[in-house]
Please model this.
Amino acid sequence: MSTWSRPCAGSRAGIRLSENVQTPDPAKRDGLNAYSVVALHEDQFQRLWIGSHSDGINKLNRPTKNFGLIEHDPGNSNSLSGRLVQAIHEDRTGALWLGTEYGLNKLDRDTGIFTKYTFDSDTTGVVGANVVSGIAEDSNGRLWLGTRGGGLIRFDPQTGEYRQYRHEPADSNSLASDQIGRVYFDSFGTLWLGTTEHVLSRLLPEDQDIGRFTHFQPQPENKTGLKNQMGFVFLEDSYGGFWMGTHLTGLYRFDRETEKFTSYQHDQKDPNSLSSNIINGMYETRSEHDTTLWVGTGNGLNRLDRRSQTFKRIYNKQPGGSDFIISLTGDAGNNLWMQNQKGISKFDTHHEIFINYAGSRGLPSDMPNTNGYHKNRKGEIFFGGMGGMIHFHPDSILSNPHVPPVVLTDFKILNEPAVLDSSITVKKLIDLAHDQNFFSFEFAALDYTDSKKNQYAYKLEGLDENWIDSGNRRFANYTAVPPGNYIFRVKGSNNDGIWNEDGVSLTINIRPPWWQSGWAYGSYLLLFVAALYAWRRFELRRIQLRNELKSKKFEAEKLKEVDHLKSRFFASISHEFRTPLTLILGPVEKWLSRIQQAEMKTDFHIVQRNARRLEQLINQLLDLSKLEAGKMRLQARPENMVALLHMITMTFESLAKQKKIDLQFRATEEEIIAYVEREKLETIVTNLLANAFKFTGEKGKVAVAVAAAVERKKLPTATASATAPGFVEIRVSDTGVGIPADQLDKVFDRFHQVDNSASLGGTGIWLALTKELVELHHGEIAVESEVGKGTTFTVRFKLGNAHLKPEQIVETV
Model:
C-alpha cells in the first residue's frame, strides 16, 4: 500500500488534520459559533466567511485564527437582517453579498454596516422574494438571485434596478417555478436554474432581457432523457461539456449542439454503470495527457471512461472509511478529498488507495452538508457541516510513513488467560478441544506516534466472510465457534492511516467432540447400513407376507366359491329328493292307519321316522341356501324353553334306547320364557343332539341342560357377546370321541370334516347351519371338547326382546 510523502522543502509547515478542526463554542466570542455550516467563502483579504443555518455568519481572521460573530440584532437596523445565511458572494468590486431569509444584505467591511435589500410589495412590488437561496454574477456585474417563493431576481448593484422573473401558468416560456434551489452561470454566459419542483431551466444570454426560459421536464418513459431532477450538482468540464448530478436519478450530460441530455443510471445488472443514483459531488482531474471525471455517490466513488462511456466503481474498504460521499473536491496533486459519513477521506488517484481521517482522529463525525465545502485560490480546502468546520491545505498534512508491525499480545479461553507452551507472539498454531470454542485475542500495532489513533481490522477465516473494522479497539471476541480449522488474521495502521496489510496470522484448530469424530461417523455409517439392511429384510418379509395373504385370500375366495357351489348343489339335489320322499311318506302313512299287526306297524313307524328325518335334513339344506341368499327371516315369539327343549329331547328317546345311550334332560326351573322361532330352535337342538348321538358309543351318555342366568359368563371360542342382563343357556354334552383341540375353531365351517368323523354329519354342514340359526336369533354358540372324553356345545339366547328388531317379533294372540 502506497503512503503519503512528507511535504517537500519549501512547502507549508506540516500539521495534523485534526489541528484545524473548528467546533462550535458559544461561550467563546472569538470561537466558531455556527452549529450548522451551510455556506463557505474566502474573500480577497483571506478572511473566511461562514454562513450558518440559524446562527448568522462567522468571520475567521486567518492570521490570528480568531472568529468574529456577526448576527441579527433586532434593535439595530444596520445589523444582519436574518439568522439564516445560505448564500455568500463576493462581486468583482470586492463587495460582499449575503443571502438571508429576510432578503439580500451588502456588508461594508470597513464600518461593519449592512445595507438591506428586501423585496416586498411595500417597497419594490416584488412579492415573496425575501428568502435568498443562491447568488450568481453575470459578465455585466449584475447579480442573479434565486429565491424560495419569489422566483428569480436580476439586480444591478450600480443602478439599483430590479427585474423579477416569475412563473406564469399561461406562458410556457416563463420561469418553471418560483422555488429556486440552485443558480449557476457556465462559461458561455448561460444561466442554469434548479427548482424545487424538480425542473431544470435554462436562460440564454440573448433571452435574458425578454425572460424566455427553456425548460427540461422529467421524462420517466425516456431511457436517455431526464428523470426526476430533485437536487442539483453542476459541473462544466474542460471540453465544454455540461454535467448535472441529481439526488435520485443519477447523472446527466448536456449536448449543446443537439440540446439533449444523456442519462447515466445505476443498473444492478451492469457492473459498469454508476454505483448509485445519488450524486453528491463531481470533480475533474487534469494531467498533460488526459482529464478524468470523478463522481461521488451515495455508494462509492466512480471514474468515467470517456471512450466507452462506462464507469469504474471504487469502494472505500479501508477501516474508518465510508462509501456515502457527501461532497467532493481535489488538490493540485490530483488527489481527491471528500466528506463522508465518518469524516474526511483522501483518495490517491495515481495508486487508487484511500486514507481515511475519521471522527476518532478528532474530526467532527456529524459534518454532512452537500454545499458546505469550499476551495480557495491557494488550494486550501474547507469542509463544513452540522458539527462544525475543518480547513487545511493538502500539502500541509503531515503523514506518518511508518508501516507498523502488528503482533498478538494475549489469548484467552473462556475469558481466562490460556496456558501455552510458548508466547502468543510467536505462536503459529493453537489446538483446542470442542468445549474451548469461546476465546478472544488481543493485538497491537507497534507505532507509538499517537497510538490511540492506531486502527485495526481482523477476521477469522472460515467463519468471517469480510474484515471486521475494529477502530482503535485492540481485541476480538469469538463465541460458540464450530469445530474446524481457522486462521485468525489482524492488520493495523498507524495514526495517519498507513496500514500493514500483511498483519499477523494464527491457525486455530478446534477438535470435534467424540460424537463428531471420524470413528464416530464410521460407527454411524455401520449403524445406518445395518438399519438399511434390517429395513430391507423387513420390507422383503412384508412383501412375502403380503403375497402369502394374497395367496390365502385367493384360496379362501376359491374355497368360498367351492362352498357356494356345494351349497347350490345340495340345494338343487334337495329339491329333487323331496318329491320321492313325499311319494314314500304318503303310502307309509296310509298303511300305518290300516295295519293292525304290532311288529309290522313298528317297522312302518321306523320307515316313517327316518323318512321324516331325511325330509328334515333336506329342509335344513334349503334353509342353508336361504341363509346364504339372505332370504331367511326370523319370526320369534315367546316360548317356554324348558317345555320346548324337553319335548325335542324326548324325540331321541327311542334312538337312545336303540343305541343303549343314557339320555338325560335337566332344567333349573319349570319355565323360562325366551323369544325364539320354534321351528329354527328345533333345528338347532336336533342337529346338536344328532351330532352327539352320532359320535357317542354304547353305554355312553348324552345330556341336555337348560338354565337361566343373570350374570354373564365368558364362553370359550364364543362367536358373539351377550350384552343383555339375562340369558338362557342350553348345554348339549356327550361322552363321545371328542374333537382335537387344533380343529375346534373349524367345527362350524361348512363341509369341514373332522378326522375322526365317520358320516355325513362330520362334514360340519349341519353345525354350520346351527351356528347361523343361533346368530339369526342374536345368540351365541361355543364348543368345548377333549379327545376321548366328549364334547359340549353351549348355546345362549338373550331374554326379553330388546335385542330384536320389530319385524323379527310375532305378537301372540
About this structure: Residues 1-15, 717-724, 756-763 have pLDDT under 50 and may be disordered. The helical segments are 518-594, 598-629, 641-650, 653-658, 678-694, 765-776.
